[in-house]
Specification:
The protein has 198 residues and is of the alpha/beta class. The protein has one domain (21-194): Rossmann fold (3-Layer(aba) Sandwich), CATH 3.40.50. It is built from 5 helices and 9 strands. It has helices at 14-17, 35-42, 54-64, 104-113, 153-158, and strands spanning 25-29, 46-51, 73-77, 90-96, 118-129, 141-143, 146-148, 164-178, 181-194. The strands form 2 sheets. It has a 7-stranded mixed β-sheet. A two-stranded antiparallel ribbon has the order 6-7. Helix 3 links the parallel strand 2 (46-51) and strand 3 (73-77). The N and C termini lie far apart (58 Å).
């Protein structure tokens, strides 16, 4: 019997969807296993998911096969810094834990490119683990070939540059029990709006 991976459930997306109308076109950068992407699709949004891993994209395709959501989803295998010219423009961009895998300089670079992917007044939603998280011992290190960074709230405030205005920034801290030990999970969430073009 084949078991679903435990992390293939659904994401907490209320903090995103409360700002979006139904039918909104969303680009998710770094879709990974599709947890957030599929949660958004199930709420009726039109989604494009991008991930550099062909196997991750294939996993999402498998989960969407023969579902109603499959028709409203486009999947692209690509590095987020090298998107195809026809990627399009979107009402919103979502990044879930992508910033944990970018240095701060690369995060600045990505945020500099994001406005051209957004429609007028488009929104950006980013969520990542913060420095208060239990896994912060990995900060600046690689594990299994993947880089981990835990940027501070001050770092997040500097993102956006000339093209994006920070609308909301918060740290969400929760106590969890792992193997009988109480640990802290810290998630930072930010929302930006694309500034009007001159």
């Amino acid at each position: 019997m084949k078991h679903e991976r435990t992390w293939d459930g659904f994401a907490d997306i209320l903090w995103i969807t409360e700002h979006l109308n139904k039918g909104t076109e969303i680009l998710e950068l770094g879709s990974g296993n599709g947890k957030t992407l599929i949660s958004l699709l199930k709420k009726g949004y039109l989604c494009t998911g991008v991930d550099f891993s062909a196997s991750a994209v294939e996993r999402i395709k498998e989960r969407l096969t023969s579902t109603e959501e499959e028709r409203r989803c486009r999947l692209i295998v690509s590095d987020v810094f090298d998107l195809p010219a026809d990627t399009g423009t979107f009402d919103a961009i979502v990044m879930t834990y992508l910033l944990n895998h970018l240095t701060l300089n690369r995060a600045f670079e990505l945020f500099g490119e994001i406005p051209q992917l957004l429609k007028e007044n488009g929104l950006v939603f980013a969520e990542a683990f913060g420095p208060g998280d239990m896994r912060n011992s990995l900060n600046g290190k690689e594990r299994n070939g993947i880089l981990y960074n835990y940027h501070t709230m001050d770092d997040w405030r500097k993102l956006g540059g000339d093209g994006l205005q920070l609308m909301k920034l918060e740290a969400v801290r929760k106590e969890k029990n792992y193997d009988g030990q109480r640990v802290i999970r810290e998630i930072i969430r930010g929302i930006w709006r694309r500034k009007a073009r001159d």
